[in-house]
Amino acid sequence: MAKNITPRHENFPQWYQDVIQAGELADHSPVKGCMVIRPDGYAIWESMQAWLDRRFKETGHVNAYFPLLIPESFLTKEAEHVEGFAPELAVVTHAGGKELEERLVIRPTSETIIGHAYAKWIKSYRDLPVLINQWANVVRWEMRTRMFLRTTEFLWQEGHTAHATYDEAQAETIKMLHVYKDFMENICAIPTIIGPKPDHEKFPGALATYTLETMMQDQKALQSATSHNLGQNFAKAFEIQFLNPENQLQHAWTTSWGLTTRMIGGVIMTHGDDDGLILPPRLAPVQVVIVPLWREENKEQVIAHANKIKAALGEVLDPLRVKLDLRENLRPADRFFTWIQKGVPLRIEVGPKDVEQNAGLAVRRDNREKMGINLDAMKTQVPQILEAIQQDLFAKALALREAHTHELDDYASFKDLMAKGGGFVMAHWDGTRETAMKIQEETKATIRCLPMEQPSLPGKCMVTGQPSARRVLFALSY
After folding, report:
1. What is the CATH number of domain 405-475?
2. Is-same-fold flag (12-271; 288-388)?
3. Do residues 447 and 190 lie in contact, with contact meaning Cβ atoms separated by under 8 Å?
4. Which of 10, 195, 197, 283 could make a disulfide contact with 452, Cβ separation 3.0–4.6 Å?
5. Chain segment 368-392, per-residue pLDDT in tens
6. Tens digits of residue pLDDT in 198-244
7. Is domain 288-388 annotated with CATH 2.60.40.10?
8. Which CATH superfamily includes the segment(s) 12-271?
9. Neighbour-count burial of 318, counting CB atoms closer than 10 A to its CB (0-12 exposed, 13-18 middle, 19+ buried)
10. Which spans in 142-196 are helix H?
11. What are the φ/ψ torsions at residue 235 (nearest 5 degrees)?
């Protein structure tokens, strides 16, 4: 067991911080609430970017970049939007040694500045749809921060699209929701529950907000991404108008959707163990690390054999991401533990006996299973092992979620469960903000979403006994 990591059962929040430090993923910044993303942490973000960027482009989107600084007057054009973000805004009042005539807001999100641009670019139905994404940083002045999960400055992608009709905008909103679900489940190996947020929880200024909810190992929910149908609210605020085929002037329908570096925290808390990080193979920047073990008299032969293994893995149809560890300043056990704490899915040890047998010893990061593999079989067996790890991580996370998902009708039982640490609860709710706030005040649990993949069976609210159209998902959350 790692001496530099607090066991999960003793203190899960401290375990999380320890894993980040042990894996060299991030460090604290001199500015409270900000973080330095170290190379190993940023490599995970780059892996996420690469997959998502490819999928965005496959679905017709292109990348652009919009300014970090936004005139304060832009935010006041959409009243609900500015009210929702007001407590989190960072504002520039002076620049160039002078007080600014109009204060500038550091981007908390870009609907307003992009709406201003779209109003200039969109004139006709022939200009639609506009499908743009940007990779950027944003600033939201958070009071309580935790690395990756909630920081003052964070990295993300934000898609912003404009359409001729509500139906087109709604189809875009749901399409991107499913792109995120595919990413969560098939790349990050994290099971998700998707659905709309209740009206009192939707994005400020949106017509509807859809979310992806995931369960962490401590049974709390993590909102992993969101997709918003903005209706015509921002189009009207910024006069995004177009002439339709009948030469009539209409407001566009817009959407926005985003995913952040928070998902690195989600991967840590879903898959990590008491020795540190565990990365799903499809996401891992390094999928296989080869660690040669030699004495001076056989060093040349061992390293040569390790290079043969690396070359063989590079010949796989979908080339594997492989690293060869030739460090001489660490004992073998310390080299092993470096890669364990960094979460590399598979380690291949190569010693003098492996040279003689034309093989290597493969060790899985997730369950520590060891297996000897002949060099000639490396190209087929290693990808199979990596795929097994990917599927096993997803299955383990799904089993945890299913074991801690409950269907309750009694409010006393609900409160007792939340007091003991929570879990996911499917329960009836009368649809009012007042009841949702009462539940949150008394238990700290919130409505995470109205699950789309659950049947809408009517019942009675567990708190008020009033009619309920369907069960909704409650949980404690990050």
Report:
1. 3.30.110.30
2. no
3. no
4. 195
5. 999 999 999 999 999 999 999 999 9
6. 999 999 889 999 999 999 999 999 999 999 999 999 999 999 999 99
7. no
8. Bira Bifunctional Protein; Domain 2 (3.30.930.10)
9. exposed
10. 166-186
11. -60, -40
